[in-house]
Amino acid sequence: xxxxxxxxLKGRKQQIRAxxxxxxGLGLVAxxxxxxxxxxxxxxxxxxxxxxxxLGAVWPLLAAMLPIFAxxxxxxxxxxxxxxxxxxxxxxxxxxRLYDHLQALGPLWxxxxxxxxxxxSLVVGIDGLEAYYARYLPAMALTSLVPLSIVAFVFPQDWIxxxxxxxxAPLIPLFMILVGKGAEVLNQQQWQLLARxxxxxxxxxxxxxxxKLFGMSRREAEVVAALTEDYRIGTMxxxxxxxxxxxxxxxxxxxxxxxxAVLIGFRLFYGKMDFFNGFFVLLLAPEFYLxxxxxxxxxxxxxxxxxxxxxxxxxxxxxxxxxVRPGDGTRTLPPGPPxxxxxxxxxxxHAADLPPALDAVSFTAPGPGxxxxxxxxxxxxxxxxxxLMGLVQPERGEIRIGAxxxxxxxxxxxxxxxxxxxxxxxxxxxxxxxxxxxxxxxASAEAVERAARAAHAHDFIAALPRGYDxxxxxxxxxxxxxxxxxxxxxxxxxKPAPVVLLDEATAQLDTHTQTLVxxxxxxxxxxxxxxxxxxxxxxxxxxxxxxxxxGGRVVEQGAPSALLAAGxxxxxxxxxxxxxxxxxxxxxx
Length: 589
Known about the structure:
Blueprint: H1 4-13, H2 17-50, H3 55-111, H4 115-127, H5 130-157, H6 159-168, H7 171-206, H8 208-213, H9 217-269, H10 275-316, E1 341-348, E2 358-365, E3 369-374, H11 381-388, E4 394-401, E5 404-405, H12 411-416, E6 418-421, E7 430-431, H13 432-436, H14 445-454, H15 458-462, E8 471-472, H16 481-494, E9 499-503, H17 511-524, E10 529-533, E11 545-550, E12 553-558, H18 560-566, H19 569-577
Parallel strand pairs: 3-10, 3-11, 6-9, 9-10
Antiparallel strand pairs: 1-2, 1-4, 4-5, 7-8, 11-12
Helix pairs in contact: 1-10, 2-3, 2-5, 2-10, 3-4, 3-5, 4-7, 4-10, 5-6, 5-10, 6-9, 7-9, 7-10, 9-10, 14-16, 18-19
């Protein structure tokens, strides 16, 4: 009974049926040329040895073999090329489908996954399917077509040899399947081990700085070495079974060819068979078993593909969470001043068995103006920003941008109006200038520098080897956490977006730089709607509106000075953090 992985692999075959049929057709014609080649060779040998013909007499037959050799070579190469292109098409389509699925799952899901495991599925897993479509499927078709074509020519010459061929042929795939079942289980285990090893190795490389800081690099190296040794032992087990299956197939085909040769030899010896017929059948016997032996070799490609398909299916079967994507509608924000953002009794739950991350949250963020979301870790600050980005689905309530419900806005239009700095900003491979101008690639050098100065990133950028043209590696290799955060802040300041979302935008900055960046944020709030989630309360004391969250609920909101005077939750947070600087109009109870 076919497994889910096999059914899935066969389902992908439908989209490349036409090129696969062409590849099989070319391979079949090449097989027919083998029959013609054997017939000509048998004629030449029979003519020279039995009929005592001269070389000149058989030269036309020898000359006819040369174009057959060339055409057969061309057909085999063309068949392989067509099959490879068909497999490449499957890989491209599947990789695009996986990328679309990952995008639909969203960045919140991706942050909870191992980047090494995902990379292994997207690269090694998809590449592991190539041999299945390029070699195994054509070989399966040729396994039946070519031997049947050969038998059709063998029976008129020698029906006894034809019966031997037909009788022994099923033994090869039978033993191949029996031996291959054990290899299939081992191969699937190898794919799982490879995924774990790849994930651990990539995660170790990405966290090598942290491992060195805590003196754990040697221990991590030992763990990776142990995983590598397990993978080596597992690979040798797979190879042992694979070699055993190859030996069995070669043994069976050799014994079968020997049986045909012995039967032909006895009848030639007793004069009961013509030499030409016997030699012609003997030449075709190895070619009869060759596709069967090739199928045994390519059968391992099937097992490898099934192992790879397990990880790919697990990824594709991951349900896409429902999210409010501003794109369910087609409305656009009208031009004008920055819009007011309204949360109206919004409830967000990350999982059915978890308490709400946001529970009936209501507040209004004025535009222009600075709204600060404060509270302990897990209070729901980041979730509120994720809801604004359309990354999570409110079960109840509504988010309005101005007077327009968020779910009625188009995705492209709303995201053009938003600049976002997450807790862990991402630096893309490219120059410093490219990273800052990501939201507006056509920006001038002056505009990029102005944004960098506003984020207090210009000084460290100017100190880089090539300044703003310095190439950066993926994830900002070579930059500190604070530098990456200022770079991301400059990117947000540079984008002409009326709504700016800052999630712990100053968390990794020193006190002096935090104060300077805070002044830039306050200046930005005079012309844009800025919503800031922060732990450091010194950055929010000059906010226009403060929303205090606790356990996903709004426990207090209002102007900072009024909240401090009330002596409630916000005042307790301020005193707990021992914030020294207070606004001039702030009074403590």
